[in-house]
């Protein structure tokens, strides 16, 4: 396991250095006036730093026993979530942002993390409204209106 971590960390450190190099080629600018490569450069530096930290950590940590990667994975839960996300994408335009997001969150709160109905309903409504306010009104993201427009004439 340590050899895998060492190889992976060295590879990612090299990738991080390459990303940082490409960031400098795009131009860094300053903190007050960053240019195109500013964020890319720092992401590369952080990736390299974290990778080298992992590399050094492999020498100081005790030997680990063999771990099984997929042991304890809750497959039914992951499959439910995947199917719910697919359903969310399929009905998103038809139902619109508000209804599809509400039902998706309600499923998450009741189906995957069992909550009381009142808690699940309140959290779903509040989260949907907050997302609409932040993204729809403040950031002006265009959401599909869905069937609410036809039924209520809203949004």
Shape: flat
Q: What's the number of helices?
A: 5
Distance between the ends: 54 Å
Task: Give the DSSP E fraction (strand runs of 2 or more residues).
Answer: under 5%
Structural class call reads: mainly alpha
Helix-strand string? HHHHH
Largest sheet geometry: none
User: How many domain regions?
Assistant: 2
Integer average pLDDT: 87
Description of the molecule:
This protein has 155 residues and is mostly helical. The chain folds into 2 domains: 2-60; 75-152, no CATH class. 74% of the residues lie in helices and 0% in strands. The protein has 5 helices and no strands. The chain has helices at 2-26, 38-60, 75-112, 117-138, 147-152. It is flat, with a radius of gyration of 23 Å. The termini are far apart.
Outline:
With 155 residues, the protein is mainly alpha-helical. The chain contains 5 helices and no strands. 14% of the residues are buried.
Topology:
Layout: H1 2-26, H2 38-60, H3 75-112, H4 117-138, H5 147-152
Key descriptive features of the protein:
single chain, mainly alpha
């Amino acid at each position: 396991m340590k050899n895998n971590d060492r190889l992976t960390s060295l590879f990612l450190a090299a990738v991080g250095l390459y990303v940082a190099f490409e960031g400098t080629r795009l131009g860094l600018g300053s903190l007050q006036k960053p240019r195109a490569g500013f964020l890319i450069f720092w992401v590369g530096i952080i990736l390299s730093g974290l990778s080298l930290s992992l590399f050094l950590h492999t020498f100081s940590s005790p030997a680990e026993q063999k771990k099984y990667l997929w042991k304890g994975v809750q497959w039914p839960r992951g499959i439910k979530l995947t199917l719910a996300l697919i359903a969310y994408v399929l009905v998103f335009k038809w139902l619109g942002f508000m209804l599809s997001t509400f039902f998706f969150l309600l499923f998450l709160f009741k189906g995957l993390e069992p909550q009381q109905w009142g808690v699940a309903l309140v959290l779903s409504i509040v989260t949907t409204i907050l997302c609409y306010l932040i993204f729809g009104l403040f950031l002006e993201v265009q959401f599909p209106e869905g069937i609410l427009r036809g039924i209520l004439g809203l949004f």
